[in-house]
Amino acid sequence: MRFDAGLTLLGHIAPVVLPPGVVIPRYVPRRVVPEYFSTVNGTLMGPVDGRNPLFFASVLLKGVQVYRNGLAQTYLSDVVHQGYNGITFLPGSIPQPGDIIECWGFPGQG
Q1: CA triplet 10, 11, 15: central angle to 5 degrees?
Q2: For residue 67, how far is the Cα from the chain centroid?
Q3: What does the domain layout of the chain look like in residue ranges?
Q4: Tens-of-pLDDT digits for all 110 residues of the chain?
């Protein structure tokens, strides 16, 4: 049996000729999907009172994108990712009462 299109083996793409009876285990890549966190569902914690700039996700995060009332916040302009699960809004961007804070992030080790 000949595979002219090639197979992905250990990160390399090369044509492979398999002898009869040889089976290569199917590799199933692990999907990394961002998770959703929000002040509405309690997975993003901190009072939205117009004074509090610091919010915490319920798990450790990396690769965070923060939204305030549906608008993406700019890193280092509006918000910074503090530590492993903290999000700090910078002056001028502190959420006001009634604002909805949401973020998408990858659970991990910061």
Answers
A1: 85
A2: 13
A3: 35-107
A4: 444 444 444 444 555 566 776 666 666 566 678 889 999 999 999 999 999 999 998 888 888 899 999 999 999 999 998 777 899 999 999 999 999 999 998 887 54
**Cα 6 to Cα 13: distance, rounded to the nearest angstrom:** 6
Distance CA 60, CA 55 (A): 13
Indicate whether this model's pTM tops 0.85.
Answer: no
Please name the residues in contact with 61: beta carbons below 8 A apart, sequence gap of 6 or more: 37, 81, 84, 85, 103, 105, 106, 107, 108, 110
CA dihedral 43, 48, 54, 59 (to 10 degrees): 0
Residue 89 structure tokens: 């809004």
